[in-house]
Amino acid sequence: MNALISSPVQVVPLVSLAAWLWLLLCHGLFWRTDVRLPPGAGGEPARWPSVTAVVPARDEAEVLPVSLPSLLGQEYPGRLEIVLVDDGSTDGTGALARELAAASGSGPRLTVLDPGPPEPGWTGKLWAVRCGIARARAEGGGPDFLLLTDADIAHSPGTLRALVAGAEAGGLDLVSQMARLRVVTAWERLIVPAFVYFFAKLYPFRRVNRPGARTAAAAGGCALVRTEAAVRARLPESIKDAVIDDVNLGRAVQRSGGRIWLGLAEGVTSVRPYTGLRPLWRMVSRSAYAQLRNNPLLLAGTVVGLALVYLVPPVWACAGSPVGGAAWLVMTLSYLPMLRYYRQPLWLAPLLPVTAALYTAMTVDSAVQHHRGRGAAWKGRTYG
């Protein structure tokens, strides 16, 4: 009788181990961190296309002194203009941007716009992007490319040159790089590398980059879009209410027939600090339920899946199960490349189940906030 009762229980760690072996070998090698700018990105186009960088900014005075000068200092041979859209800031973001541009001396022209409140049906960020793109296209027919970048993103001097070279060499309509997020505090070390790891598992970069693939995504912090592709995809109007704007950006370009590419960045970094658990919790929970299409059944399946894949292995391993230990080992090994990419101590890898438990709680909290009518909240605005 005991054997009959215990036998089904012993299947659980076996299922978890099988899931990890499948993820490791058959899920687009999502755990690898070697997907960087496309092959041939170092080539020089015969003519450097014109680019307008559109920067939506809402209360970004804290990070702008680091991020904006990096855009103003781009070593780009073609024409570059910057449009910063001050999205209802109350901390002097627009005035500070003008001061930083004046202090930089020579460099690309900076235009600061105040678009007013977003129209109904638009998120604030995408309304700001719309106004920035409209301004860029109103002058001389518009640029060849649009660089959509967040106000907290700092770029190395050669970032734009490499992005454009990669797009031209590969015939790509969208080239985006996942910015290297800040990892300084203990909470950032525990949560941030896993954020990128989980994103790559949801949208394996190799699958995204495969011509004709069904998987599509982008990284909103640094996305170079060919202007004609943006027009063809009706951007940003076609995604105007999207809380997760970057993934929907990639889908819109791909569905309209464009070729997209997504990878990790070398010289693109986020300078936004997350000094404790609360701001990191808000960062994840504001869009986690939207990622599940606000669907309770998808939420339940996700919670069960996270428990099976991330929590079962350490629990069974601590109970003496070698199968559980093997699953935990595979999980740990899959996380090591991301920790190396973030230059973090490798002893954090076995703690991935702890981080996964936190992400599960954040996802459930996101659903609770949604069903309480609070939706996705960010900088004083709530959506959905």
Strand content: 5-15%
Could you list the spans in which at least 5 consecutive residues all have pLDDT below 50?
Answer: 1-5
Largest sheet: 8 strands, mixed
> Structural class per helix/strand content?
alpha/beta
Task: Please list the strands of the largest sheet in the order they lie side by side.
Answer: 3-2-1-4-7-6-8-5
Average pLDDT: 91
Principal-axis shape equals: globular
Number of strands: 10
Sequence of secondary-structure elements: HEHEHEHEEHEHHEHHEHHHHEE
Query: Oligomeric form of this entry?
Result: single chain
From the N-terminal CA to the C-terminal CA, the straight-line distance is: 52 Å
What can you tell me about this protein's structure?
The chain is of the alpha/beta class. It is built from 13 helices and 10 strands. Strands 3-2-1-4-7-6-8-5 form an 8-stranded mixed beta sheet, with helices on both faces. Helix 2 (64-72) links the parallel strand 1 (51-57) and strand 2. Helix 2 (64-72) crosses helix 3 (93-104). The longest helix has 25 residues, at 2-26. The N and C termini lie far apart (52 Å). Residues 1-5 have low confidence and may be disordered.
